[in-house]
Amino acid sequence: MEAGIVGLPNVGKSTLFNALTCSKTAQAANYPFCTIEPNEGIVSVPDGRLARITKLIPTQKVVPAALKLVDIAGIVKGASEGQGLGNKFLSHIREVDAILQVVRCFIDEDVTHVAGQVDPTSDIETIETELMLADIQTLDLALPKAQRAAKSGDKEAKLRVSAIELCLAHLAKDQPLRGLKLPEAETKAVLSFGLMTAKPVLFVANVDENDLKGESPLVEKVRVFARKISAGVVPVCAKLEAEIAELEEPDRTEMLLSVGLAEPALAVLARETYRTLGLQSYFTAGEKEVRAWTVPIGATAPQAAGVIHSDFERGFIRAEIYNLPDLEQFGSEKELRAAGKLRVEGKHYIMQDGDICHFLFNV
């Protein structure tokens, strides 16, 4: 699962990406299209539960969950028609699972705005419009082919035609596809198109150093828009976060305290991105390693076991599961087992965020 960082040129996407992935490359130049190919990076998902587990289960190594980020070059008005490097960059968005849209919420005369003025609502609408137009183009091209196949009696093609027509009707109302609830079969029929407005979105309000909590009218505009589509908003000062990411741990802590932050805003952003992707973590804990494993919300116990190794899923017998509050109450797995707090779950168990597991399997 991966998220793509998108936005207009000069909103701070690459600065944010570099900070998130602790990249120490030179700052991007102050002009549009300085990112030519999408950069990719892996970012850890901060999780305080790992430290709480290792307090009671000492280990040699701690491995947090991670997610993949793609820094996609700036999109401008007309991108769907090839403006800027339009279609090239839009194709990169089709391949990600969620969108992080960076929105400029600061005034700086030294940083050019592609539209001439800072207006978060207008910026968001520009991106939304270009993505909707690109989705319409994709569906318009796919429809005739699907219709021809449907005439021969192909059931999948008939489903595809139905799904395409429903999507086009929704887009014709100037509404992104993430607000359209298709039946499961129709959803699968158009999955391969990589429709961009069907992807979940998280807005990143890039704020000034004097507005770290995102209380300015500019950020409020982003929140108003986000509420309309049930999306989240995370205020981040990309410039400050990039500086913090460059520091060693003691200096980082000191700088965070000096600006009144309990943790880097990037930690909040990583967790919110994880949530936006529909992911959750379960843990395995032992002397050699305490690790957070990533599974989609709703995954079964065998599916979760398969994340560790395909043999675990194929030969799944059962899972032994307990939770962190019980571990902290009883102090060890031995005491948990004695108190009957270590549950045995079968193939149909739906994993819960924060489960601590042992899997039994046989192949």
Number of helices: 14
Question: How helix-rich are the residues, as a percent range?
Answer: 40-55%
Arithmetic mean pLDDT:
86
Number of DSSP-assigned strands: 12
**Gyration radius, rounded:** 23 Å
Strand arrangement across the biggest beta sheet: 2-4-1-5-6-7
| Strand fraction | 15-25%
Structural summary, described in words:
The chain has 363 residues and is α/β, with parallel strands linked by helices. It is built from 14 helices and twelve strands. A six-stranded mixed beta sheet has the order 2-4-1-5-6-7, sandwiched between helices. The chain has a three-stranded mixed beta sheet with strand order 3-9-8, sandwiched between helices. Strand 6, helix 7 and strand 7 form a beta-alpha-beta unit. Helix 4 runs antiparallel to helix 5. The longest helix is centred in the middle third of the chain and has 32 residues. The relative contact order is 0.14. About 4% of the residues have low confidence.
